[in-house]
Amino acid sequence: MALTRTQIYLEPEQHRLLKKEAEAKGISLAELLRQMAWEHLRAEPTRNDFLSIVALGKSGKRSISEEHDRYIAEVMSGD
Predict the structure, then answer these.
(1) How far is Cα 30 from Cα 3, in angstroms, rounded to an integer?
(2) Does the reported pTM lie above 0.90?
(3) How far is CA 29 from CA 24, 35, 36, 37, in A?
(4) What pLDDT, in 10s, does the model give residues 18-71?
(5) How many Å apart are CA 65 and CA 15, to the nearest integer?
């Protein structure tokens, strides 16, 4: 597997706790972060994720309040 090198900045407490967790699992900090990235990317959206978009701004569409379910379904299906 080809890997891409990247650099991130962690708060000292984050680094300490993540390093401790990696050691407890017997893996490197980098591997722990890769696993965490995959968990995040594979996570299914939750109801709260969808509700967080409510009232974010004006769309210019007059039918949003009546057809919001259809618009959300279109976005989720990739149409």
Answers:
(1) 11
(2) no
(3) 11, 10, 10, 12
(4) 999 999 999 999 999 999 999 989 988 777 777 777 766 666 777 777 887 887
(5) 45
